[in-house]
Write a structure and sequence with these properties.
The protein is globular. Helix 6 packs parallel to helix 9. It has 308 residues and is of the alpha/beta class. It starts with a helix and ends in a 14-residue tail after the last helix.
Length: 308
Amino acid sequence: MIVRFKSPRPRAREESENYYESIDESGKQQRRRLGRLSDDATVELSIVVPAYNEEERLPVLLNDVREYVEQRRRKEEEERGSNGAEAFTYELIIVDDGSRDGTAEVALSFARKHGMAELKYVRHTANRGKGGAVTQGMLSAAGRYVMFCDADGATRFSDIDGLLATMTPAAAMVAIGSRNNQALGDTVVERSLVRAFLQWAFHTYVTILGVRGVRDTQCGFKVFTRHAARLVFPRMHVERFIFDIEILLLARYLRIAVVEVPVNWHEVAGSKMSIVRDSIQMALDLLAVRLNYMLGLWTVADKEDART
């Protein structure tokens, strides 16, 4: 019963969802076709941000990313001197999952104001869910490293350096931010008692269902080598909050190395998640995901592609 009614059925992309809007160097808005994960990398880092009604919280993250890029480029320029090495390249893919507020205007206005031609705004015609927005963005990423992070800026973006330091570009590897490993590093986590209890309860439930070895499965700050992303995201089914668990299950089935790295995190008001309703929904979704793989209804295909 659970498998039948709770199993996700992702829809195909609409044609309009294959395009993004950006602001060129002259300040003019332009529309171009998205790339594919199966293509060769053209930038160092792809940052995918799922956004649903995030007009108020998104600017914090955008500023955090902008400051990180500026500092990294300054540092690399000082280190390379006059050897002619290329500056750090990136893209910032904002996947608007059917917002009804001013998310689009906020994103594109920010890009115009700060000359951020690297920002690519993608709009879904209908809401998929956070997992669906992440997956669609990752399938269009152009980076040697591909990451996703939450739109609220709860995780300090510069902590990405700690994740990248653990990775080898040519390998299949995943580095995930962890809010439960502060003993391993000088990081700070600020969360309410209710959230802390729910995270503990969810982790216990996840462990019972056989997803072991990861202390914080739900932190919205994960980095993949391009090889790992190509293996994982074409095989994704889940489009709601529980998608992180399917990522980790696929990584285990595909023998992809996963490392947890402590990050600085603080709770941000305005979450779209209902503590009671969505906690129950996540528990049922997780059971359905586990049963689908255990019963062989979902299989890990022996191929590497990038479906859209």
